[in-house]
Design goal:
PH-domain like; two-stranded antiparallel sheet; elongated
């Protein structure tokens, strides 16, 4: 145990019985106690994180990492937003569908979400064209639009994961089949009057 702590060169002395023991000053003892307390607090925090992840995995209907970015719809009278399709501002988020909310965490081990959205506020969910960055796998994309005009754009390299999110959100938000399913190449499934564009 002592080898894990920061006092690297502890003074070892032999007592009259030939046994070796450590002799520490009051300052060294206080320092060791402080380090032990810090380690116990860290252990407690890690245990809480582990229990939180376990609870999410057991109780959430759906969870996993997605790349996301947020956009706001133009307000009445405002100019439409500039086309920022080339802006690479996608960030990974751990997304959890639980109860009546969609929670966004920075990391799966975070104890509190960075953001959340009520499912009752979601008015539209649908696929987006694939996104392909140079030298990377194609990203299958979808969006979530809230009644406040906030649009979450989400992506994953897994088409199965994107399909699962679309199906769950459509069912949980009572959106029916407003959104078009994705085909094998990650494009919206074309109807007889639609052309594929991904």
């Amino acid at each position: 145990m002592l080898r894990l702590l920061s006092l690297r060169r502890l003074p070892w002395v032999a007592d009259t019985d030939g046994q070796e023991k450590v002799v520490l000053s009051a300052v060294e003892v206080a320092s060791l106690r402080s380090e032990i307390n810090d380690l116990e607090e860290r252990e407690s925090h890690l245990k809480a994180q582990l229990e939180h992840v376990d609870e999410i995995l057991r109780s959430a209907r759906l969870s996993g990492y997605l790349y996301m970015r947020m956009r706001w719809a133009a307000l009445p009278g405002e100019l439409p937003p500039l086309d920022d399709a080339e802006v690479d501002d996608w960030v990974p988020r751990f997304v959890v569908l639980h109860g009546s909310c969609l929670y966004l965490y920075m990391l799966s081990t975070d104890l509190s979400p960075q953001d959340s959205t009520m499912l009752s506020d979601i008015v539209e969910v649908g696929p987006l064209p694939c996104l392909t960055r140079e030298g990377e796998e194609a990203q299958h994309c979808f969006y979530i639009l809230t009644r406040q005009g906030l649009r979450y754009e989400c992506s994953s390299t897994s088409r199965i994961q994107v399909d699962a999110w679309l199906a769950s959100l459509q069912a949980d938000c009572n959106l029916g089949s407003k959104s078009t399913p994705l085909n094998e190449s990650g494009k919206p499934q074309p109807t007889s009057s639609q052309a594929s564009n991904c």
